[in-house]
Design brief:
This protein is of the alpha/beta class and 184 residues long. It has 4 helices and 8 strands; from the N terminus they run αββαββββββαα.
C-alpha cells in the first residue's frame, strides 16, 4: 500500500477520534431566554404555580418537591423571598425524557479495500449505536401581574444511572446551573 493511502487512513482515523472525543466532552446544553423589557430588580418575592408542570394527577410529585426546594434555595440566595400570597413572580417547571440511539459516539472502523481494478477505496463498518436517555428540565418565571413569561432556563443532558441513583444531587446541580444565568 502506498504512503498516501496510509496518510488517508490516518487522517480519517484522526477525524473520527476527534469527533468521538468532542461528543464525550460535551456537558449539559443550557439555553436561557429573557424578556428584554423586564426590570428584574423590581421583583422581591416569588411563589409557585398552583399546578406545576411536573405535578401528577394526584398532586405534587417528589420531583416537584425537589425542584421547588432547589429553586427556593437559588432564589433566596438572589434576594427573592418566598411568599404564598400575591408574589411578584410565579415559578413553573417542565421536565421530560426521550430515549434514542447515540449516533455521535458510535464507533466506526475504517478498513482499506484492496481492489485490483482502477483504484483502492475504503469501507466503513458501523457498530450498533448506544441506547441513551436524554432529559430536559425547564424553569419558567412568570410575572404574576401581567401573566407574562419573563425568563426561562432550559437544560438538556444525557440521563445516566448515577443521576437517577442520586436525584437530590442531580436536581440541585441542574437547578444551580440554570439559575447561574438568572438576571439577579
Amino acid at each position: 500500500m502506498e504512503l498516501n493511502s496510509y496518510r488517508g487512513i490516518l487522517a480519517v482515523a484522526t477525524l473520527i477520534l476527534s469527533a468521538v472525543l468532542a461528543g464525550c466532552a460535551s456537558g449539559p446544553d443550557l439555553r436561557v431566554n429573557t424578556d428584554p423589557g423586564t426590570d428584574f430588580s423590581a421583583y422581591r418575592s416569588f411563589g409557585f404555580m398552583q399546578e406545576l408542570g411536573t405535578d401528577g394527577p394526584g398532586g405534587r410529585t417528589m420531583l416537584s418537591a425537589r425542584l421547588s426546594a432547589a429553586t427556593t434555595r437559588e432564589l433566596d440566595a438572589r434576594g427573592l423571598q418566598f411568599v404564598s400570597n400575591n408574589p411578584d413572580v410565579l415559578v413553573n417547571f417542565v421536565a421530560g425524557t426521550q430515549s434514542g440511539i447515540n449516533m455521535t459516539n458510535m464507533p466506526i472502523l475504517v478498513m482499506p479495500v484492496q481492489n485490483y481494478g482502477a483504484w483502492t477505496g475504503y469501507r466503513a463498518t458501523f457498530a450498533p449505536g448506544e441506547r441513551i436517555n436524554e432529559g430536559t428540565l425547564g424553569v419558567h418565571i412568570v410575572d404574576r401581574r401581567s401573566n407574562r413569561l419573563v425568563w426561562e432556563g432550559i437544560v438538556n443532558d444525557r440521563v445516566t444511572e448515577a443521576m437517577t441513583d442520586n436525584p437530590d444531587e442531580t436536581i440541585n446541580g441542574m437547578i444551580a446551573k440554570i439559575f447561574a444565568e438568572f438576571p439577579l
